[in-house]
Every structure is written in C-alpha cells, then in structure tokens.
Design brief:
The chain has a domain of about 110 residues: Immunoglobulin-like (Sandwich). The N and C termini lie far apart (about 55 Å). It contains one helix and ten strands. By secondary structure, the chain is mostly beta strands. Strands 2, 4, 5, 6, 8, 9 and 10 form a seven-stranded mixed β-sheet that branches.
Length: about 160
C-alpha cells in the first residue's frame, strides 16, 4: 500500500471513530447512557425529529415477583400496562395511548414485545428485570415510562 493510500485509510478510520463517538448516547457526563437514563433512545430505534410525546401509561412487571428465586432456564415474565394498549404494528403515527413493551435484563434490551407475557431464557444467576412502555415507533416517550426494577435469582 502506498503512503498516500495509507494516509487516506487512517483518515477515514479516524473520521468514522469520531462520528461513532459523537452518536453514542451518554448521560451528559460522558458516561454511556443506561436504560434508566431519560435522554437515551432505545437500542435499535431511530431518533425522531421534534419533541417526543408524553403518556400517562404505567407499566409494571408482576411476575416474577421482586426477590423471587426462579428455576430456569425459562423464566415467565408478566407485565401489566395501565392507561394504554399494546399495538401489533410498528407505526410512525404515534399516540400516547398506544405502543410496545421493551424488556431489559441487566440493562440490556432483550425483547421488543407486542404482548404482556413472554418466556425468556436465563442461565443461573442474579438478574435485574425492567420493562419500558415505548411509542408505536419503538422510541421512548418523554418522560420515559419504566417499571420498577425486579431483582430475581435463577437457579439451575
């Protein structure tokens, strides 16, 4: 490779790194955003133009119970949603009373569910479950609508 070609390649790689760093969600302190951060966008979702709508919906995880010891690897998760309904189709026609549930395990998005019950597979260990009600475009409402943390232990 010629010196000129190497310089272009290094320049392109640096530009890509700068763009990636500028696009990564943070908490405002430079730290990566977590699912409980109100400023980040759900993984895999695209940012929308303009302000996000709010909703009066409330989401909660009712099973497994907080502190439960669950025999795995399959864990049955039940979510309740009050003040809104789950819609099956992804849409850019955002309404405050319609959307989807995203389920997080240890701050990692594991499911973008179109229902209120599902089975997830977890190895033995201790986990934190958290659900978020998001708009029908899979982007969070403002403010974000989170369940309380549910700490569980999965046994073999």
């Amino acid at each position: 490779m010629t010196r000129h070609a190497t310089s272009r390649w290094v320049g392109a790689a640096l530009a890509l790194l700068l763009v990636a760093a500028a696009c990564a969600p943070t908490t405002g302190t430079g730290a990566p955003a977590s699912p409980s951060s109100s400023s980040s966008i759900a993984p895999g979702a695209s940012a929308s133009v303009g302000p996000r709508p709010s909703t009066s919906a409330v989401v909660a995880i009712t099973a497994p119970a907080v502190g439960a010891s669950v025999t795995g690897p399959s864990v049955h998760v039940v979510v309740t949603l009050t003040g809104a309904q789950i819609v099956q189709a992804t849409s850019t026609d955002v309404r405050p009373d319609q959307g989807h549930v995203h389920l997080y395990v240890n701050s990692q998005l594991v499911s973008m569910n179109y229902g209120l019950e599902q089975d997830i597979t977890l190895a033995p260990g201790t986990y934190v479950l958290k659900a978020e009600f998001v708009a029908s475009d899979h982007v969070p409402f403002n403010p974000r609508v989170w369940s309380s943390d549910v700490y569980i232990t999965v046994t073999g």
